[in-house]
Amino acid sequence: MPCYRCGTRQGDPEPGKGSPWQRGVIREHQVLICPACQLAARAELSRCPGCGSAHLVRRLDQVECVDCRLTRDADQADDADTDDADGGEATASEGAGGGGLAAEVARALARVLGRP
């Protein structure tokens, strides 16, 4: 998954070191943020209603705070707004990543298989 702001792809971290990339939730979607974009992205991250932390993860239509473990259902209205902005709702074959991931996989396969 690329950085949601600049599109940079995450590489493997050095052995023995953790990844400098950050994950977060923005408009009910989990995103990755590269080290160069983290400062600018800080204001855009969703925050926990319990403790105010931005350390959130999204799993199976729920958003969980990593710090205080408060779990809530993801707001389905925000998901629908995002799907409409992408040109329609995600189909079952597109999965949780929506049309963007399916299109990205199709482009990668076309490159590997030498198709236009």
How many structural domains are formed by the residues?
A: 2
Distance between the termini: 23 Å
Helical residue percent band: 25-40%
**Tally the helices: what do you get?**
3
Oligomer: single chain
Average pLDDT over all residues: 78
Q: So what's the overall shape?
A: globular
The string of secondary-structure elements, in order, is EEHEEEHH
**How many β-strand runs?**
5
Low-confidence stretches: 77-98
Strand order across the largest sheet = 3-4-5
Q: Give the biggest beta sheet.
A: 3 strands, antiparallel
Give the amount of beta strand, in percent.
Answer: 15-25%
Radius of gyration based on Cα positions = 16 Å
Structural class: alpha+beta
Topology:
Layout: E1 22-26, E2 29-33, H1 38-41, E3 56-59, E4 62-65, E5 71-73, H2 76-85, H3 98-113
Antiparallel strand pairs: 1-2, 3-4, 4-5
Can I get a quick summary?
The protein is of the alpha+beta class. The chain is built from 3 helices and 5 strands, in the order E-E-H-E-E-E-H-H.
Summarize the structure in words.
The structure is a single chain. This protein folds into two domains: 75 residues, no CATH class; 31 residues, no CATH class. A hairpin with a 5-residue loop joins strand 4 and strand 5. A three-stranded antiparallel sheet has the order 3-4-5, with no helix packed on it. Strands 1-2 form a two-stranded antiparallel sheet. The two termini are 23 Å apart. It is of the alpha+beta class. It is globular and about 50 Å long. It has three helices and five strands, in the order E-E-H-E-E-E-H-H.
